[in-house]
């Protein structure tokens, strides 16, 4: 049976970055109470205010999306820099390679999804809602993060989400989820390998 949990933005946990260079807001982590060194998967948001290197997470894959601000340029594993903006598709890359960020136009806030490579796989999609849509949960662990606006999510029960609120659905694979309202959201699927 599907289990739904609303994760209000006011209850997200704040903690320092692994490299000490800033602060992250943890939305959810598995197993519950896991640290940065032993999580299976983790969803968080971070404000990036200065140029600098990303923390290294051995054996982890990550996907970044820009929530607020005018963009961040990422140099990943020595490749040419990639400019990530609010209109860019979510960007996936290994979290255990050298990554350096620069801010061409001020601070940003990002959404960061990380999964441990040996046990999990994830996917992040950005969706703009302007009325009602039906989405199909493709993994047993599925999140909807309301980025902007007010959204109502119906998955056997109705849940209202405001900016930065999230809905966690467990045992969700194969279920249809109806999202209504006007806003932007991120759909995050986490699957076992």
Automatic annotation (TrEMBL):
Pfam families: HutD. Gene3D superfamilies: Jelly Rolls. This is HutD-family protein. InterPro entries: RmlC-like_jellyroll (IPR014710), RmlC_Cupin_sf (IPR011051), Uncharacterised_HutD/Ves (IPR010282). It comes from the Bacteria. It comes from Rhizobium mesoamericanum STM3625.
